[in-house]
Structures
1.
Amino acid sequence: MYGENMALTVNLGTPYEAIIENLIRKGYAGTQAEAIRHALAFYERYIEEEEVRLVNKGIEDAMARIESGQAKTSSLEEVRKRQARKRCP
């Protein structure tokens, strides 16, 4: 799909059409298609940043649980020993 031209007819509705026309009037975009491309690129970056934020929050929460003693940790050696015991009957 990337690299191909995709022709779409989209009915955005009055509020969104007004936003696009305002962006064109202010010079941020030259055409409606350009304004939509900018919006999609911005949204993609936003989603990627939100994903990173959520992963970081999960890491922070996990670290807080570890530091408070609510979560048990094991050394790599302890994990290897447990795995070896599971393999040997």
2.
Amino acid sequence: MKKPFQLNLLTAAISSLLLYGCGDAETTIIEKEPIVVPDEDDHDDDHGDDEFTIESMGRLAVLSADSNQAVVFDLDDNQLLDTFSLIHNSNSLTASADYRFAVIASRSNDYVGFIDSGMWREDHGAHLHDYEQAPEMNHLELDGSRPTHIVKHDGHMAVFYDGDADSGIPAAVQVLTDTDISSEISNIHTLDYPVNMHGVAEPVGEYLLSTVRRDDAENTSAAKILPDQVAVYHLHDGEYEQEQILEVLCPDLHGAAQNGHAVLFGCSDGILVAHQHDEEFEAEKILNIEGLNGLRIGTIYGHEESETFIGIAAGHGGGEAILVKIDPENEEMETLEWQPAADASPVSYAFAYEGEAFLILDSKGFLNILTPHDHDGETHWELAGSVDISEEDVSTMPEGMKFSMTVAENGHYVYVADPIAQHVLQVHIEDMEIEGDIELDFAPANITWLGIAEEAHEDDEHDH
């Protein structure tokens, strides 16, 4: 297995590219000429998509923990493309629905902004057309109250705003596509609530499954700010209208995911499973099992290519974590055979690009790779192997920081950021080997992959 210290030649080459460093006023911006779109009359329709598509590893956005800056790297040569000064110091980072934009959210400052990676794909009917340009800051800014859960699925991104009880600001949801962000749309599809709540919304085509907080006297949640119902909203003439409320209650609702067949919500007593039948949605409950030891599932991960979901049961504020397989088709859940070690807390989870693996990055610096196996018609997730991604003394991790990772959406790679060593490693998931190293001159707070994703391979999770 390759280790970071065995990549001296690569590291030296990368270091030579970073002489200008992030945050330096003299940082060189590597601009790439945009692909010129030929006039449709200048070519026939006999060519394939290869003439207009790009083979690229994509790009990587890295959020600095030391300043209010984000940087973008080209993953084909690990060159620094640009450095961006952000408005606020406290930010989270994720990707937009089609991975063109880095989404910068600052919950405490009621802010969501976007960095254009410069890579995207357009469907021109006769062919797919890829574009590769220099990254730049997009001018669209969202300013809803307390943006918290950001969910992406099938080309749509739903931003759930919790609202603020002290200021009397209710919750809301905004749904955008990458095209909306690119055009800096002013009339965003929005769902407004009459009251604040810590909720979540799942976009399902022209529908939106979003949480409902009832009056405290009716609400079955122990924490009344948490909703206990899910409603179905349909987009009509640019507005979301409520069409039904699912009858199954979901007390202390937190966490949601979907895989194209079912939409799941985490409840204190189990998992609410919603299915679409024509224009109606039905719901049932998968009850908690004894193996959860009294914990509840509050985080769920799903993927288009996986019939089963992975649920994370944990206490509020961290501590013990129990991983659970959730099987909506058979209406059952079971604890995984592999569980995190007592002294290694999971810090990040993700499905691999095609759903062929589930990744758990822990506080000890190990990337644990689970793969599904069919046994008697049932899927079982088992440990395929672990990759040691840090040679550092993990006890020296800066306070409030942790390892982080992001999965490439066009190949079998995961990128792992190490705040202690101040670098990002490229790990091949199938080979379980470290294949690259991007040196940084700051501690990374978070990273996200950007670029042109392969179609029909999508994962779903919510980001905080």
3.
Amino acid sequence: MATINAVILKHQMKRDGTWNVKVCVNHRSTPRYIETNNFVSKEMLDSKGKLKKAYIDKFLAKQLTEYRDRISLLGKKVDFMTSSDLRTYLLSSDNSNKQIDILENFNARVVTLHAAGRYSSAKCVEVVCGHLKNFSKMEKISAILVNSSFLMEFESYLLNNIKLSPGSVRTYMAVFSKEFNLLRKNYNNPAIESFPIPFNPFDYYTPIKKSVPKRRNLDLQRIISISRFKSESYPEQLTVDIFMLSFFLCGMNPKDIYVYLTNPEKSGFLQYSRSKIKARRKDGGVTNVKIPEEAQVLIEKYAGVIQKRYSSLVIFHKTFYRSWKKINEALGFKCTMYYARHSFANIARAVCKFSKDDVSFALNHKYGSDITDVYIEPDWSVVHKVQMGVTEEFRKGVIE
């Protein structure tokens, strides 16, 4: 049976000769303690060194009664709980009326994502947090104030005031939903019936309709034009060369190029885990690409160099953003790093006539059955076949 009492721990006397009063939660002969804001001197203790009843009745009786009542409400659940569980339950009850600030938590999340190297995700959460702050004109936003009306007004603000595209609004609202539900998961504890964020407003929110995505495909002739682009500006030449390296390596992301291609002598094949999906996939997002001659030249030129020249991925990515504007003006058509991966896939399917399944495998998209994959080793030759098919088409176009 669980018992609740007010106590002091004699060995924890402060330098000023006082003790902090604690609530002792004793269950199954195991005590756990909850600190209070009360401090007592020796005058408040009886001859046995325990708190005097008069002091308890005057300052702690109400709190002790509330704790006992809350434990009584658990009924037989107490039999399956430890003293630590009960302590957590009581503390959660104390915090049930505490306002949870989503801006504070979102900012903390940004720091966590940065520490994990998830810079793109951190940037998205940071942007959403900034928009929420500007929209609400508040320094703090309580989670329980976020309802379906709040979400609809915020969506309208992004569309009409910030002038974001429907696609961008969908993205930011999806980030908002994900982070809000993460808050609910962190703060709510169904095991002890603690729900400081009981309501999920996104259950009653309908996302804005998804617009048809713009194609990011370039034909072979334009890919060749990019490969022939020369600039005296190092950032611009780097941007074009990393684009082509991505194209030759099945649309390898610049982040993965920065992380995995550090050895200029790397040749033959490259096996790596795609950073974008490795945390979400059971197989760790592992893929294996062949290194053709065209890619080998670029690896020798940049592997180990870009890591020294650009101290972080954030700076590395900013270089591309600035450079593409000038490169596009010179080329006469729009292109970004995304186009390398999209164009590779389109050429593999439309020009080389590889099956969608083979192209999907080359791009390291999820396909097939999880159960079957347990039995079958990945056949990387399929990836290499698609890859070299696209590379050969590129070589033909260069000769012509």
4.
Amino acid sequence: MNKLSLIPLTAALMAGPAQGEGAIDTLHRLIDGEEVDNAVWIPFELVTPDNIEAYLRRN
């Protein structure tokens, strides 16, 4: 059993490469003078008690 499995979990957002890529892409667009939305939606993975074991096996 992984130690993370012992932590009471309601839900967590797991960051991955998409967060960094989205941030850098938005930064480049700003530097290039392009307009960007006030809110930039970047994909995330919601980890819950129902899927934490699968997440831990992958990572």
